[in-house]
Amino acid sequence: MSMNRRTFLGTTAATTALMGTPMILKAQASEYVLGASLPLTGPFATAGQLVAPAFALATKLFNDEGGIAGTPIRFVTEDSGYVPQNTLANYQRALASEGANMIGYFADSTGAMKLIAPELKGENARIMGSTSFASELADPATHPYQYMSGPSYQSQFDILLQNIKNEGGSKVAFIFSNTEFGRDPIEHGKATAERLGLEVVLEESTKPQGADIPTHVTKLAQSGADHCILHGYVTGVWPQLIGGARQFGLPTKFMGTFWGMEKLIADRVTKEAGPFLSGYEGVMPYRYFWDREDAPRYQQYAELSKVMFAGTPLENYMSTWAIQTMCGLEIAMKSFRDTAEAGKELTADNVAETLSGISDWDTGGFFGGNVSMVNNAIGTGRVYAYDAESGLFNPKSDWLSV
Amino acid sequence: MGQFVQFAINGVMAGAIYALIAVGIVSVYKATKVVNFAHGYLIMFGAYFYFTFSVIIPNQPWAPEWLLSWQPDWLVAQKADLPMFSPMGAVLDWVSNLPRIVLGLTGALIANAIVGRIIERVLMRPLMGQSVFAMIMVTVGLISIMSGTASLIWTADAANVPFLSPSAPVKFEAFGTTIFLLGTDLVNMVLALLMFAAIVAFVKFTKGGIAIRATAEDQSTAYSMGISVPKVFSRAWVLASTTGAIAGAILATRNGISPSLGLFGFSVLAIVLMGGLDSYVGVLIAAMTVGVLEAMTQWKLGGSWAEIVPYVAVLIVLIWRPHGLMGQKEVERI
Hints:
Largest sheet of chain B: 2 strands, antiparallel
Strand order of the largest sheet of chain B: 1-2
Radius of gyration of chain B: 21 Å
Distance between the termini of chain A: 71 Å
Order of helices and strands of chain A: HEHEHEHEHEHHEHEHEHEHHHEEE
Shape of chain B: globular
Strand content of chain A: 15-25%
Number of domains of chain A: 2
Oligomer: heterodimer
CATH class of the largest domain in chain A: Alpha Beta
Order of helices and strands of chain B: HHHHHHEEHHHHHHHH
Distance between the termini of chain B: 55 Å
Helix content of chain A: 40-55%
Largest sheet of chain A: 8 strands, mixed
Largest interface: A-B, 46 and 48 residues
């Protein structure tokens, strides 16, 4: 067969069109999908159910703002029961059904993030946020597509230990759940304590639920700790440990990390068992929802919540857990939007590059000031103390960076 | 030595609760030859019923105020100048909570007895005469049903319930070490042991108990001697449910309320196997042994080991005596 100029041009045009079609189709996605797994059942269902409405709010808010470069977004959320294998299965299913339209995923535990990390390769790589502050994830070299929306648990321990040192404390106890989540910052915490000249007099691991409170409190009493950091719990164990210690008459000062700092839980315990949580302190990466005078983004959330969640407790209050999720989604959206604005395709590599380069970002009030992503984490937080009378966590320190 | 005493007492307190839980498993086994794998979830239901009647109902707007917190003038006057967590304050707080504690326990006993009766009547009795294995499998299926039902009704929220007795601290010196105990744990231990003794006495010395033992020996002979075997089945399940309700309430005051309470049943199942499925005394010894071993392991090796070491001991005992410490050896005639 001979090829003349006309045939050559025709064939070339057809081949180019054929090769370009997938790209055009990709560029013309009618919507982008973000998948998510939440613990709607299981031990952390309380948290999952409070976080779930945030996705409805985020869909409305982000789409009203034009989605990603004019393309709307849609969330696909599924229950994991707080089982990492379920989250992995949810992720794989979402990937199979949504394909290239799915540009990000939100996981619900440290275990799930670690389990999915090896899956994030080549075509299957997606940008991934989560509820976890596990220190191991704050490493772009090993987890290039995963990020966290605040300081790692190790950094949270650093903030607390520094605070203990500043208060003149000398003996500290670590009580933590016997889970990956609970064990995460313990070794690092011991090293930091040593560096600060604090003596770690007790390392006590407990069941994450249904712990043997009298035995743990006994060990705490006999350790002589002046401060105790509780870590790795959400709704249970930590209040019972503090209650047990107070019944024993222990003067130990208790502190917690992000997941043990929710007002709804502290209020519920106060209502049922008395005001013994007063003075309990902990690290919170974000402003609480009531502190929104200097937080324009929170004000937007509040306006939307009034309409979307009218008649429910969510109408006036967004839990810290939902705030964390919103912060994670804001980080992802900023990365998607900035990548799209730069004229780049929303591949995991491009988005990860944009995300790790976020610098001096005004989040609209989540944090005390502008923040930057360092090692795919935002190393800032503040110490708050609970006041049982007002039912509020009040700031005890300035915004601290680690 | 002082530390040893401390953790030995902690272990005995935990062991007493294990024994109370175990008594339900043994009672059902003695009467029906069925190992009830769902017993832990029956206990969880008992705990949630206690929570319902002592926390949820008294907090309803239609409930009288005295039910939530009884505050007669003399009580208010007594409490006025007391610091929080003072021993007298703990006693007075308990008195304030007494109406809802009584309602909680009564409600839990009745509601759990009804649940036990329903399980026996709807799921177990139709299988009478069938293989015991089928009945055991039903109890395995019950785990999912009960755990799912509890999540639907009460959600997975962790919550607190009022103590069954004043939670005043008890401190004393032993071998130069201050021993810390919670009054409520001591009362729980006494309550659990008393209930255990009462059930053993019931089975040993009452007509109903003798019927349970006779049925355990041989159902056909028991039938022919005029014993209503279905009634015995029913009585055993109600006994397990009501003891489960008390055990659930105690566990809830000790560890808080959460769906994980159901898992206690599995730990206790190992204790029952260690003691002997049909021996109350063996089970009491095994419960105390595991309780003390757990506390000692927690003390010396930490929480990660506390969940392993006692059960390794259970395995060793089972290898040595497959029918448990004091269980009856099965003799099969061919």
